[in-house]
Amino acid sequence: GDDLKLNAIALKCVSNDVETFKTAAKTVVENSDMPVILCCFNPDILIAAATEIKNKKPLLYAATKESWEKIGSFAFDEDLPVVCFSSDINELLSISASLQKMGVTEIVLDPGTFFGEGNVAVTFDNIVQLRLAGIEKGDENAGWPIMGVPAALWKDVKIKNDVDLWKFQYKEMIMACIMGAIDISVII
């Protein structure tokens, strides 16, 4: 019964160029009042773009086992929210705990979104494990909003024709519906 609507803009760095991503981030905030999610696994590029728009409090995507300390320090200094990303639930909870110890107060958890044979079940199971850890076990490291990224499907997609495009759009939509049904807080 919920009316779904666009609540934020997720800006993904595809150029791997710091100046391009900074310019894109500035353009987004100059032309919209919507919250922004900056998506980049290169912490230097992510931090550079976030510095340009930090007054808009962008959500930083993502702190990983390789980058949590650098992103966490920046997020703490600038009072910005951070997404923790790992498909390994224990690792994800460890990143969450580490960020909290640093003083980061706004965290979102992304256990990964996976497509292909058997992977929808993995995605679903990871999300359920996080919810159970937070609710039934009272694990404060799991008690944060959970993000799902059906848009991850497009990472390795090669569209050959309109039929392919429809198939991939349908898969993305099905994953988003599954995530909505299991109470995901943020869906990209």
Task: Describe the protein in words.
This protein has helices at 18-31, 43-53, 68-78, 89-102, 119-135, 162-181, and strands spanning 9-12, 36-39, 59-63, 82-85, 107-110, 147-148, 186-187. The protein has 188 residues and is an alpha/beta fold. The protein is globular and about 45 Å long. The relative contact order is 0.11.
Short description:
Helices cover 46% and strands 13% of the residues.
Chart the SSEs and their pairings:
Elements: E1 9-12, H1 18-31, E2 36-39, H2 43-53, E3 59-63, H3 68-78, E4 82-85, H4 89-102, E5 107-110, H5 119-135, E6 147-148, H6 162-181, E7 186-187
Parallel strand pairs: 1-2, 2-3, 3-4, 4-5, 6-7
Helicity range: 40-55%
Question: In what order do the strands lie side by side in the largest sheet?
Answer: 1-2-3-4-5
Figure out the total of helices.
6
Large-scale geometry: globular
List keywords for this structure.
two-stranded parallel sheet; 5-stranded parallel sheet; 6 helices; 188 residues
